[in-house]
């Protein structure tokens, strides 16, 4: 394994399972000290234990990214314990409800988790990223549904499309500080959230919906979380030192 992130501090939100977990393991294997943040503290601690068993360095943090005060505390603690942050991976997100018949409380929750959390996490991280000696990298998880509209999930597309434009705006505004900003746009990835995404409508046949979606993916399969983690590790590293403002599809050719 390459050690492209040796000596760097990285925070990954929603790192207790799925793509976030795979990214935490990959970042640690590449030499980073990984702050594993998740709503489920027990899940975060399990990832930390796995990283330790593989010789890596990490710590677990319980955080509901939808709560601004909790987000702020995470960065206050990083300032106290590390004094610097090299990589912020705003990965946390939820499918949210389908369709347009959505209660205001549901709408607000999806926006708070998918969009507001990334905005404020980046805001709070900036003083630490500016101390990264030109190695600062902000990564967002968007979606192919943030590039092309989802007929079933307009709220999800709205939040994920907003993430892409937030990323692009930050790429321009943070460039003078040598802080890069990029987004990963996955298509279907085999994670615990996948069945939740397809199972939002009552009576939905999840297997049929997955098969129908997979038929639109030229490579003919879903992605493994590790394939998204590989893209994240690349964007976090010096191999991507001239890449900023990019919405990178990791989609098996779906957008083609």
Report how far apart the termini are: 31 Å
- Compute the average pLDDT: 93
Structural class: alpha/beta
Specify the biggest β-sheet.
7 strands, parallel
Query: Any low-confidence stretches, pLDDT <50, length ≥5?
Result: none
For the biggest β-sheet, the strand order reads: 3-2-1-4-5-6-7
Fraction of residues in helix: 40-55%
Shape category: globular
User: How many extended strands?
Assistant: 7
Specify the number of helices.
Answer: 8
| Percentage of β-strand residues | 5-15%
H and E string: EHEHEHEHEHEHHHE
Label this structure with key terms.
7 strands, 256 residues
Please characterize this protein's 3D structure.
Helix content is 45%, strand content 14%. It has 8 helices and 7 strands. Strands 3-2-1-4-5-6-7 form a 7-stranded parallel beta sheet, sandwiched between helices. The two termini are 31 Å apart.
Topology, please?
Blueprint lengths: L8 E4 L5 H12 L3 E6 L2 H13 L3 E6 L5 H14 L5 E4 L13 H26 L7 E5 L12 H21 L5 E7 L5 H7 L7 H9 L10 H12 L10 E4 L6
Parallel strand pairs: 1-2, 1-4, 2-3, 4-5, 5-6, 6-7
Helix pairs in contact: 1-2, 1-8, 3-4, 4-5
Question: What's this model, at a glance?
Answer:
The chain has helices at residues 18-29, 41-53, 68-81, 104-129, 154-174, 192-198, 206-214, 225-236; strands spanning 9-12, 33-38, 57-62, 87-90, 137-141, 180-186, 247-250. It has 256 residues and is an alpha/beta fold. It has a 7-stranded parallel β-sheet with strand order 3-2-1-4-5-6-7, sandwiched between helices.
């Amino acid at each position: 394994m390459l050690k492209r992130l040796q000596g760097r501090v990285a925070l990954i939100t929603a790192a207790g399972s799925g793509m976030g977990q795979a990214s935490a393991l990959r970042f640690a294997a590449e030499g980073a000290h990984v702050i594993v943040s998740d709503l489920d503290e027990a899940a975060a601690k399990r990832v930390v234990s796995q990283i330790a068993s593989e010789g890596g360095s990490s710590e677990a943090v319980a955080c509901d990214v939808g709560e601004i005060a909790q987000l702020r505390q995470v960065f206050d603690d990083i300032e106290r314990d590390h004094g610097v942050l090299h990589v912020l991976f705003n990965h946390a997100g939820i499918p949210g409800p389908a369709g347009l018949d959505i209660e205001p409380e549901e709408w607000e929750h999806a926006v708070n988790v998918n969009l507001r959390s990334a905005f404020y996490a980046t805001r709070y991280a900036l003083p630490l990223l500016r101390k990264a000696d030109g190695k600062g990298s902000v990564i967002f998880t968007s979606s192919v549904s943030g590039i092309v509209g989802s007929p079933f999930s307009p709220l999800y597309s709205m939040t994920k499309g907003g993430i892409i434009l937030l990323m692009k705006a930050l790429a321009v505004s943070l460039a003078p500080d040598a802080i890069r900003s990029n987004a990963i746009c996955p298509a279907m990835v085999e994670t615990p959230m996948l069945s939740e995404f397809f199972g939002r409508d009552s009576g939905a046949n999840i297997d049929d919906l997955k098969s129908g979606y997979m038929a639109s993916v030229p490579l003919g399969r879903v992605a493994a979380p590790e394939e998204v983690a590989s893209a994240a590790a690349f964007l976090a590293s010096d191999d991507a030192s001239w890449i900023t403002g990019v919405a990178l599809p990791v989609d098996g050719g779906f957008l083609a």
